[in-house]
Amino acid sequence: MRATVKDVARRAGVSPKTVSNVMNGVVPVAAPTRLRVEQAMAELDYVPNLSARGLRNGRSGVIGLALPDLATPFSAELTQSIVEVAHAQGFSVQIEETGSDPHREHELMTRARANLIDGLILNPVVLKESAVQMGVALPPVVLLGEVTQQLADRVFVDSFAAARDMTLALAKPGRRRIAVLGVNRGRHSATAIQRAGGYEAALQILGIPKDESLMISCDSWTPASAAASLAEYLDANPLPDALFCFTDSMALGALNTLWKRGVRVPDDIAVAGFDDVNDGRYAVPSLTTVSFDKRAIATQALRLLTERMSDRNHGQKLVEIGYTIEERDSSKS
Amino acid sequence: MRATVKDVARRAGVSPKTVSNVMNGVVPVAAPTRLRVEQAMAELDYVPNLSARGLRNGRSGVIGLALPDLATPFSAELTQSIVEVAHAQGFSVQIEETGSDPHREHELMTRARANLIDGLILNPVVLKESAVQMGVALPPVVLLGEVTQQLADRVFVDSFAAARDMTLALAKPGRRRIAVLGVNRGRHSATAIQRAGGYEAALQILGIPKDESLMISCDSWTPASAAASLAEYLDANPLPDALFCFTDSMALGALNTLWKRGVRVPDDIAVAGFDDVNDGRYAVPSLTTVSFDKRAIATQALRLLTERMSDRNHGQKLVEIGYTIEERDSSKS
DNA sequence: TTGAAAGCGATACCAG
DNA sequence: CTGGTATCGCTTTCAA
Questions:
Q1: H or E segment and range at residue A323
Q2: Do B116 and A2 touch (CB under 8 A)?
Q3: Are A81 and A276 in contact (CB under 8 A)?
């Protein structure tokens, strides 16, 4: 049977309250008393029951992290940062996968309280204003990414500007047929819309007419799906001069397809991605990409979340994270 | 203020017990009563408090997943499988990172009860018998991987045999200088020891004398570390005929280094990895690897964990997961 | 089939 | 600075 505060208190000859004081360290306790209590805790191998504490305090010390696809390297790197930052602040992280399903995104937000979590960091894909509005009593939530809505706090990279700048960077002399990979026809991924928008803005700046046939769709943002989509595309279309993939994962799949067909990168086609994951940096050739500080995202998301937890009523807070264009071998001219 | 069972009960004109019965669905409730209760729950936007339930039941419905490095694609894919399988069984997953620190591994096991979790799936790196033995009252734990100890349940791939078979597969005619990358000098990674052992066993079968200078160390199993280690190695040593990296992540880093130096894969050197991550399948060239079913690992780990939770006293259970050698372009002869 | 009341373990209030 | 006590929300005997 596990030891409780009562057991510790009895063994130390004090009251449960004193034991609690020793643990929480906020109320001062006389040194000898503290020593007796600490010894009793050690002897009994005492471990506090967090369910009980959570019930009493109304906080569990756990935050939720919900991502669309847990299998991607980007998810892994972001998760690592968030877990490490959360841990440093005394939070545990409970992880969820939404599968880009708006219904699931909504359920996670509204039922968060049931899931034993004090707050939620959510990377939504299609979450619209409506989904956030309807929940009257939302838990503290911080959104990650480009979704447009006015209620929840949010940490984001300016995908529009980044995609525009990347497109401009790809448009070296002689490279005018610039394709994008990752357009989602049908589904309304906010990220895809932003990045496609930035791409189109760049074309306008460059004076290149928009060509629908250069916008390659790819519903699942995975290497497998990207490789297949690009292969199918190249069977029916001429090789573009450059290919801007909306994620590094897709870019890696694209590189594989190009290599299989004997297309040389960057000589025959320049390739770029977005996210700057480790595997892109070590791709063959190393991948040009939009880079941003994932640790900063984690830090800011946790800051916003804790601020929201302590004051549920302040206005919406937005934090923008900067980006850089990392030109690597896949687009060197 | 959040609604409680009492509020629901009052509104439905029943007792709290009846509300509880409706939720848990085990004790039969008359249809009209159930309807009234369900309506009351909906009207009050009732969400059960899991801390209270956990306190009462002694179970939180959360399991822990502790991995050495959350940033790797392998961690991501394994996490995805475990989250999905756990979710299907009604468990949430709390994620932790050990950083390969044995002290942290031990702490997670012994303090698991404090962390609000019912059980722990742990992928240890250096956990020795001692670390498991000393905990008198361990929580339900399932270990992942090759660590040798006799107490905790475990799901594993036979790394020794897999490494042996991969080495044999690499040893095509004319390829006798087979190197390995990922040997950990100093630290005692159980996985590294197993894989190095399998490699040496294959050499013996092949009648190739072991050559210490072909065992390249690499403490951190990341692409960055692998790329750097291999570069340093190649500066001082001739190119081997084949390179067996102990993880796909390292292999990707190695491919990058080889490519930068103009070494052709597989013509000049065959390369292989271990884990079969998505990014390896789409590497340039696509990566030969040891493949195994990550979903099966998740399924079996959860089965062992739930069995252990319902019976803390049965003997140690071991489940072996099969593997296959996937020969892809990086080692085609 | 349903109701009343006890109690899981930790904490905060209020005395002393 | 420390002790008694009520309480968080839910489930579970035991009765009816």
A1: strand A323-326
A2: no
A3: no
d(CA A329, CA A54): 52
Closest residue (Cα, C1') to D12: B17
Which member of B51, B95, B97 has the closest CB to residue A51? B51
Does any strand D atom come closer than 7 Å to the Cβ of A54? no
Mean per-residue pLDDT for B148-174?
93
* A35 sits within 7 Å of strand D by its CB: no
What is the distance between the alpha carbons of residues A154 and A156, in angstroms, rounded to a whole number? 6
Q: How far apart are CA B234 and CA B213, in angstroms?
A: 11
Which pLDDT tens digit goes with each residue over B48-91?
888 888 888 888 999 999 999 999 999 999 999 999 999 999 89
List the end-to-end C-alpha distance of chain A, in Å, as a whole number. Answer: 69
User: Helices B50-57 and A50-57, interaxial angle, to 10°?
Assistant: 140
Q: Does A95 touch chain B (CB under 8 A)?
A: yes
Taking the CA of residue B257 and the C1' sugar atom of nucleotide C11, their distance in angstroms comes to 58
Give the closest of A50, A80, A223 to B115, CB-based.
A50
Asked if A139 has any chain B CB less than 8 Å from its own CB, the reply is no
8 A C-beta contact, residue B202 and residue A260: no
> What pLDDT score was predicted for residue B39?
83
Q: Does B279 touch chain A (CB under 8 A)?
A: yes
Residues in chain B: 333
Instruction: Check B83 against A97: CB less than 8 A apart.
Output: yes
Q: How far is B206 from chain A (nearest CA, A)?
A: 32
Q: For strand D, which nucleotides have at least one atom less than 7 Å from a protein CB?
A: 1-5, 7-13
The pLDDT of residue A158 is 97
How many whole angstroms separate alpha carbon B215 and alpha carbon B14? 72
- Which residue pairs, CB below 8 angstroms and at least 24 apart, start in B299-302? B299/B81, B299/B85, B300/B155, B301/B82, B301/B121, B301/B142, B301/B144, B301/B155, B302/B63, B302/B82, B302/B85, B302/B86, B302/B89, B302/B91, B302/B121
Give exposure, A24-62, as e/b (b: 16+ Cβ within 10 Å).
Answer: eeeeebeeebbebbbebbeebebbbbbbbbbbeeeebbb
For residue B317, count other CB atoms closer than 10 A to its CB.
Answer: 15
Average pLDDT over residues A195-201: 97
Strand partners, A143: A122, A154
